[in-house]
Amino acid sequence: MNSWNLILKRANNKDFKPFIKFNKSSEEWEKLLPKEVFDVTRLGLTESAYSSKMCNLFTPGYYICSNCESLLFTSAKKFQSNTGWPSFSTPFKEESLNFFNDNSLGLERIEVRCATCDAHLGHVFNDGPAPSNLRFCINALALKKIEEIYETILGGGCFWCTEAIFRNVKGVLDVESGYSGGLLENPDYKSVSLEQTNHAEVIKITFNPQIISFSEIINLHLATHDPTTLNSQGNDTGKRYRSIIFYKTPAEKIVIQEEIIKKEKELGKKIVTEVVELKRFYKAEDYHQDYYYKNSSLPYCRVVIAPKLKKLQKFYKKFTK
Ligand SMILES: [Zn+2]
Q1: Which helix H or strand E contains 313, and what residues bound it?
Q2: Cα–ligand 1 centroid distance for 189 (angstroms)
Q3: Catalytic residues
Q4: Which of 6, 43, 161, 163 holds its CA 20 to 30 A away from the CA of 203?
Q5: Quick one: 200 and 302 in the same domain?
Q6: Which residues of the chain have pLDDT under 50?
Q7: Does residue 31 share a domain with residue 155?
Q8: What's the predicted TM-score (pTM) here?
Q9: Could you tell me if residue 20 is inside a domain?
Q10: Closest to 244 (Cα-Cα) out of 209, 218, 208
Q11: How far is the CA of 115 from the centre of ligand 1 (A)?
């Protein structure tokens, strides 16, 4: 839960260096973004007050980063601040934002940046509505509003890998590493690793169905891990590494089965992916989230994950951010 004290603590942490998950040079951003968006998000300028209709927009929906599409805020936490900028009392999740002291213009403020791509979003103040008492004052040009989001949970070996892959997929708004498919409640990494829980290492993918469909997500999953090897991916062996896709509705189950049949024909091999009804997803410990980006120099990341990302960029370009 966000609180002013926690935000101050994070902003005052001088050792903190953002690990950027979606990295582009300033020149690349300049080519990609409209000038007014580039000026705000990459140069840190502030748009004029009341310059966007988004200030007075309160219809249901989700607010994503205009640079990298990460899910940042929801309409449920948007409020009328009468300041001239879109205002939110709470972010979608604390980890999606970074905070920095900003002493420019002779003011003492806390700057808010996107934790995925380091875009400047705006500032946060401690004069918002209860219970958070926070006011995230965000430039409308740093945001895009979308109407709906969709979630799916799947596993294909070590979640450090699958998370890194799906973070780079167009239309994917958020990815979380976790455990599912077993019986033990509130499992931890140790009990899952010791194969005491029957849980698999999985990821929860939140995506924009207007950009990428559920069937495309399933297809990409089957293409970016080996769905033909039972309980193993490369050197990682054990039931926690099994290939698995969860469904929430009978319609989802049919889509998954159709994609598996298509892939089997393409590969000419039997697919062993489990198709299971979703019971519960347990988020993994914090140090597993964004593991690849926090630890990209470690051997496992360099040897196992980096080539998978290269493969994604090479063979599935149209799906890559
Ligand atoms: Zn971003």
Answers
A1: helix 306-315
A2: 29
A3: 137, 158
A4: 6
A5: yes
A6: none
A7: no
A8: 0.91
A9: no
A10: 218
A11: 7
